[in-house]
Amino acid sequence: MSKFIRNAWYVAAWSTEIDDDLRRFTILGDHIVMYRKSDGGVVALEDRCPHRLLPLSKGKRVGDNVQCGYHGLTFDCSGACVRVPGQTNLPKSAYVDAFPIEERHGIVWIWMGDPARADTSKVFDMPEFTDPGWKVHHGDALHLKSNYLNVAENLVDPAHVSFVHPTTLGNAASENVPVHVQTEGEAILAWRWIRDAEPIGFFKGFGGFTGNVDRWHYYYLYTPCTAIIDFGSAPTGDAIAEEDRNKGVRIFALHFITPVTETHTIDRWMHIRNTAIDDPEAEVTMDKMFRVAFQEDKEILEAVQEEENRPAKRRPIRIAIDKGPLVYRKRINDLIELERTEDLASDPSPAFVYHD
Questions:
Q1: Measuring CA to CA, which residue among 118, 114, 112 is closest to residue 259?
Q2: What residue stretches are annotated with the Rieske domain (predicted)?
């Protein structure tokens, strides 16, 4: 049984990762060759020639087409075979799958499921990407030896911050502060405020706070694999309300999670900030701090994966902070099951009369 949702948009790469060369990417266990056409658009094809199965990424470009490096079969950007050297007829089975692509804000998104269902309006977006009052900065592609579900759950879990990131994104002041969870909307949301507390290491280094602050963490997890963390701080004396977070130093940390295989995940992270928008040194400083924090996550998640790979003596326990992750797992399982089941009721047979 598949462990992945296929009818969804995933981040395949940063725009800077794709150029004119044939490059292999692995997403949901599938090998894909990606490159840019002469007009700059991105092509994504199944990276396996249907003849002898050599990866097309080991072939070469012929204009905007790809030629297999084994026997020269050539495929266009739609995946159709346009040449078989030595013969004029083109077998119907001579094709490779082509994957819909949407590129915006320096991010290349790929649709891994039924191409007819690829709705570009469903690609994640937010107004701050184009708002001149915010600075957008791309970070890294963090490779983790971990299942994507564990990575995603970590990104809707404010409670771990106090213990995993005590010198960067959290401190002891938040250990016993309750976490609020809302699961009704499109995104699963977990949040909390820590009032009148020492600033965390991140904002000591970046925000310049010296006295106590009010700080917040809002974790939004969108199915299947996009997480947005809205966090920031403001001087306690300002007594800002929840809806006035823009008055403080506010940062959105964006995490685009790409399942590579069952135990390999890429977390491409970036940030959008409302302060120091014209200061390139600010993002250098922030990247350094983010890298420290995300390395802390990596060590935890990879250690958890190692234990999950071993025989289990009993089922793990669940505690109050697990509400968001449990709802997330259920949503994923429901969507996977829906993809496995053909919906015959959507176009009912005229032999039946429905009164509902």
A1: 112
A2: 9-110
Alpha helices for the chain (secondary structure H): 148-154, 161-164, 201-205, 280-308, 323-340
Which residues make Cβ contacts (< 8 Å) with residue 295, sequence separation at least 6? Answer: none
**166 and 231 share one domain:** yes
Contact between 223 and 208 under an 8 Å Cβ cutoff? The reply is: no
Q: pLDDT tens digits, residue range 96-126?
A: 999 999 999 999 999 999 999 999 999 999 9
The residue count for the chain: 356
Longest dimension (CA), the chain: 79
Q: In what order do the strands lie in the sheet with 60-62?
A: 60-62, 65-67, 74-75, 81-83
**Residue in 2, 112, 8, 111 with CA at minimum distance from that of residue 336:** 2
- Global pTM? 0.91
The answer to whether residues 213 and 95 belong to one domain is no
Would residue 4 count as lying in a domain? Answer: no
206-219 mean pLDDT: 88
The domain of 108 spans 9-120
